[in-house]
Amino acid sequence: MHTVGEALPASGNFTMLGYLDGLDGSSLERTLGFHPGRLARGFSVIALAEGESLLPQQIELKASTRWSAGAMPEPGSPSLRELESLLSERGQDVALLRAKVCSFFARRGRNTPAKVIPATPHEAGMQYPGAEAIALGVRSGVPQFNLTVPKRFVVVRVG
Q: For the chain, what is the domain count?
């Protein structure tokens, strides 16, 4: 699929490298909310390349992988809520929060933006279940963000 050190453009949902370190395929599926077995044929972990940075207007805050695409259920309703709209309604400055998150990413190391690229493409019928990052059966997730523009990433691990 890919080789360690290979550079490639990526956008879309991501987390931080520290949440992906040391996890095998099934643990990554459970932590990130991939369809069970999706990573069985392989995957690549990619991290934002050195020299690249993220600007606040290039990311969206997406809560956590507990909810598919970070859209949270509306209490008592089948509707979904986006984290940024909830934060705005509660008087938070979303642009300022995005800037703080980007400065956190700039520290690199375990904070480096990273994502998993499955060898198996999405197929009809595949689900993105809510994550169980803590343990099987425990609804939990890791921080999730959305990168709205392609950036250069580098393959740091192949599984």
A: 1
88 occurs within a structural domain? yes
∠ CA(88), CA(92), CA(95), 5° rounding? 85
| pLDDT for position 41 | 95
Its pTM stands at: 0.89
Amino acid occupying residue 103:
S
CA 78 to chain centre: 24
Q: Give the position of tokens 């499955």.
A: 118
Query: Cα–chain-centroid distance for residue 98?
Result: 15
pLDDT one-digit tens code per residue, 90-123: 999 999 999 999 999 999 999 999 999 999 888 7
- Please give the helix or strand (H or E) that residue 4 lies within, else none: none
Residue showing tokens 């805050």:
61
In a domain, 76, yes or no: yes
pLDDT at residue number 91: 96
Residue 1 inside a domain? The answer is no
Say if 51 falls within a structural domain. Answer: yes
pLDDT in tens, 130-148: 767 666 766 678 999 999 9
For residue 86, give the DSSP letter. Answer: H
Which domain does 92 fall in, by range?
7-158
The residue among 58, 62, 60, 19 whose CA lies nearest residue 151 is 58
Compute the mean pLDDT over every residue in the chain, rounded to the nearest whole number.
Answer: 90
